[in-house]
Amino acid sequence: MDLGEVNHQRIKTNGIWLHVVEKGSGPLVLLLHGFPEFWYSWRHQITFLASRGYHVVAPDLRGCGDSDSPLSPSSYTVLHLAGDLVGLLDYFGEQQIMTDLALIFEKAFVVGHDWGAVLGWHLSLFRPDRVKGLIAMSTPYYPRDPAAKPIESFTGKFGDGLYISQFQEPGRAERAFARYDYLTVMKKFLLINKTDLLVAPGGMEIIDHLQTPAVLPPWITEEELQVYADKFEESGFTGPLNYYRAMDLNWELSAPWQGAKVTVPTKCIVGDKDIGFDAYRTREYVQGDTFKGLVPDLEVVILEGHHFIHEERAHEVSQEILTFLQRLSVE
C-alpha cells in the first residue's frame, strides 16, 4: 500500500525516545497499535484520516519498532505508557493556555487496538482532560478484580497453556518464537482465525499450537507481512512481551482507580469472530450493563471479522472512526 509522504521522527518523552509517523493537519488523532505490531498496522487509517482533515500520529509504543526498549518488564506499566503519550500530546502542540493560573490542555482523539486499546482506556481513566474521545478495538475495558492478581487468575482458570501465562517467564516465548522465521511468526499471529481462547495443549508452546495458513486472506499481502517480519527481526519480541510481564504490576499500581469509570465519549469496535468473543463471553459483556456502567458514554459496534479488525475491515473501520470524530468535533 502506498502511504504517500509521511513524516518519521523520534521524540523524547518520559525519559525515552519514541519513533512516530505523522501525516496531515487538523485535530490531533493518536493511533495506538497492539501486539505484535508497530505503527505500520495503521497504514490504511493514516492515509484515510489525514486526507479528511486530521493530524494523524502513529507512534511505535515503547519496546516496539524503532522506539526505545527499556530492559526491565517493570518499565512497561500502563502508567509508563500513559506518561509516554502525555509527552507526545504536549510535543505535538496541544496548546497550553494560561487561564486563572491554571493550565488548560487541548484534548486529542485516541484510537487503540489490542494493547493500544488497553493504553487508550487507561489514558482516558488517568487523564480524561487530555482525551476528547476514545475508540477502542478488540479489547473492552474490564473492571479490576480487587481479590486476585490477573496472572494468578488467568493461570488458575486456563492453565499454563494460556498464551498470557506462557509469556510471563523472561526468555521463554522468545526461545519458542526463535524456532520459526520471523515471517512465519507474523503469519501465525496476524492471521489468527481461532475464535476460542489461545490455549495450547499440555506441554506445547502457544507458537507451536498456532497454525500457519497456507493461503493468505484477501486483506493482507505477503509483502505487507514481510514488512512486519523485517521490523521484528530488527527489534525482537522482548519489548512487546514485557507488556504481558507487567500485568500484575499494573494491577498493583491501579488500585487507586478501583471502581473508577471511563467518562470520555467512547466507541468500542469488536469483531464477531475475535478470540474468545463467544467462548469467553465477550459478546455478552460488551452488550451488557456492567460494561455500560463502567463506560457511561459508550457506543458498541460489532463487525464481521477477527482480532486484527482494523486491517481485515480497514475501510469499514476507518469510516467508523471518521463518523465518531466528526460527531465529537461538532459537539
From TrEMBL:
Role of this protein: Epoxide hydrolase involved in the biosynthesis of cucurbitacin and mogroside tetracyclic triterpene natural products (e.g. siamenoside I and mogrosides IV, V and VI). Cucurbitacins have cytotoxic properties and exhibit deterrent taste as a defense barrier against herbivores. Mogrosides are nonsugar highly oxygenated compounds used as high-intensity zero-calorie sweeteners; they also possess pharmacological properties such as regulating immunity, lowering blood sugar and lipid levels, protecting the liver, and acting as antioxidants and antitumor agents.
Similarity field: Belongs to the AB hydrolase superfamily. Epoxide hydrolase family.
Originating organism: Salix brachista
Protein name: soluble epoxide hydrolase
Gene3D superfamilies (UniProt xref): alpha/beta hydrolase
Organism superkingdom: Eukaryota
Pathway this chain belongs to: Secondary metabolite biosynthesis; terpenoid biosynthesis
One matching Pfam family: Abhydrolase_1
Family matches, as SUPFAM superfamilies: alpha/beta-Hydrolases
Subunit structure: Homodimer.
Keyword Hydrolase: yes
